[in-house]
Amino acid sequence: MTEQDAKVWIPQHEPFVFVDKVAEVNAESAVTRYMVKAECPLVSDGVLSLAGLMENAAQTCAVRAGWMQKQQGQAVKKGYIGAVKKMEVMRFPQVGESLLTEAKKIEEVMNISLIECTTRVGEEVVATSTLKLATIDE
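Now predict its structure.
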């Protein structure tokens, strides 16, 4: 798969988009790229905040959900973070750094998913999390 614009698979709009490109996506996982930008609303003093890291992980999960919905002929649905089961931040990425975030499905029941996420800058793991997410019909 060639990298694709992530906005095709997520319901978020600028300036609150925290994924740029989709490197891989399938029913089990998604991998996205995101360049940390100075104008990002969750960057402060040149550093992406905890909320920015969490939103990047959640939007990577949303790419997988959006891909699955489109495979079923549905529109991309909104989703919400229901719980952060755990999150560990080794360091906060700086403006200009490129994030590679992978979201792997652990479990899924109806519209609730438990997803394990890993965010890297190069080979360095900068954050890990386990998110419980829900999609809704509007």
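The longest strand covers residues 98-109.
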